[in-house]
Amino acid sequence: MTTSTVTAQAPVTASPASTAPDPARLRRRRRLAQWGFVAPAVVFMLLFFGYPLVRNVVMSFQHYTPKTFFTGEAPFNGTDNWSNVFQDALFGKALWHTLVFTAGSLLGQFCIGLALAVFFSRRFPLGGALRSLILLPWLVPMVVSGIVWRRILDQDTGVLNSFLDTLGLGGHTPWLTSPHMALLSVVLVNIWIGIPFNMVILYGGLQEIPKELYEAASLDGASAWRTFRSITLPMLKPVITVVLVLGFMSTVKILDLILALTDGGPADSTQTLGTLTYQNSFVQLDFGAGAVVGNVLILISAVFAVFYLRANRTEGK
Amino acid sequence: MATHTPTASRRRWGSTVAGVIVLCVMLFPLYWMLNTALQPEAGLLQVDPVPGTLDLSGFSQAISDQGGHLLTSLAVSLGAVVICLAVAAPAAYGLARFGLRGSRTIVFGTLITQMVPGIVIANALYNSYVDLGLVNSYFGLMLADASLGIPFSIVLMRSFMVSIPGEVIEAAQMDGAGPVRTFVRVVLPMSRNSLITSGLFAFLFSWSDFMFALTLNTTDDVKPITLGIYQYIGAHVGDWGSVMAASVLSAVPAAVLLVLAQKYIAAGITGGSVK
What we know:
Chain A: Keywords: Cell membrane, Membrane, Transmembrane, Transmembrane helix, Transport. The structure holds 2 protein chains of 2 kinds. By secondary structure, chain A is mostly helical.
């Protein structure tokens, strides 16, 4: 099925060999055919990743209203969108929530993921099967996870509160309905979602560490904690960097989960740059303001990516 | 290998018990989803820890409300997989073997795309889609969803195709096969595993997509299951049984793939991210 599509996409290049053509032309034709393999992907990525980046910058200087989509008019309005967004107190709040959400999620996912990766590195019966089943939460659509947790965290009838009640630990926590609790709850759910991914990657990294190092350490009588600190962590560093960078990229822009859990509420207490972009553009239909927030989001990712690349380069030397 | 002493073996089984406990904690929300789905009469009230009777009315309600959206998800995801592989597989081969000028830049660009937030893409894409008449269309959503899998697939398949022995490809060329024939007859069959892994992930990415479904559709014409469930909780606040039944149905592909294609999933997670 796929193969036939591939053939249809690739250019026709069979050259008739009867009239021996000159080698330079032949080489050029071969190069052209080779570019035919790569070109569709390059065009696709330019359209779906390159173009939106440029268009968002342009849009952030345009005045969009609900009428724009009938009239097609979005006149340029200088830096109005930028100053409007930056003067809005909600922007500062969303920025802060984004940082708290990202840092909290990464910290929790990483620490628990690493602990589980170390745990599953031991050989024990059914270890492999248990390890792969833990992936399931990661494979369920994120909106769906969010909706399930919304039911679990319900203040009056959710199972978490009734469980805490049985233990005599209160049991009336307004997990998602209190502005003071909601962000923490969203972070906790996102930690749950991210643990499997962190665990699998870190587990893979742990398997690459030469066993002789551990044997040598145990001959030297090093304690388990010492071995972990002096061997495991340093050897795992490249993988740790990858996990944290990928985690950052996917966490900072999150939208699905927050919409499913809280819709950014209560009282904007879980509004992040991602949800604010969505609200501005697709709820208020002010695509100019949405583009401004989106650009800030890209900028944060880009700064992070530069740091990452620089760290990688110095490490390579 | 070596025979274990009773204490060592007991300790090993102790780890198994600990592992089962960890798994139970991690999978509890998914159990609760199924449990709630099987107690539709509970409505807004507390649900029991285990369903007393096998009440499937929540599921039949969910299928009659959301069955069409499941089919939409299936159609869109399969379309996205086809587009994704058709674009990514030749590119992966080209970037792995042809030594074209600019290959490194393209691979680097592919990695950088992971940095672009989806909502930013949707923001710009919506406006172009309006101009092109692609809003509320299957093809538009397939294209957007394919973009979720293409960079990943290129990176994954390329790292595999680099390792195909050069002699195999040269032998095909000696026999007079052009680049297209070599690709279709030799490279693709040899890359079968990475092709399957890429396709699987492209499917899962598309199936889980919510953002493009939410932003690129303004009517009910093309509504995948993720969007269907999201709007369901708005409309059916009192009917958690059906909502959870629909959630269970939406999680089925992930569960099935995890069981049937475990080795591809594991290969995809590590291969696609670490390389």
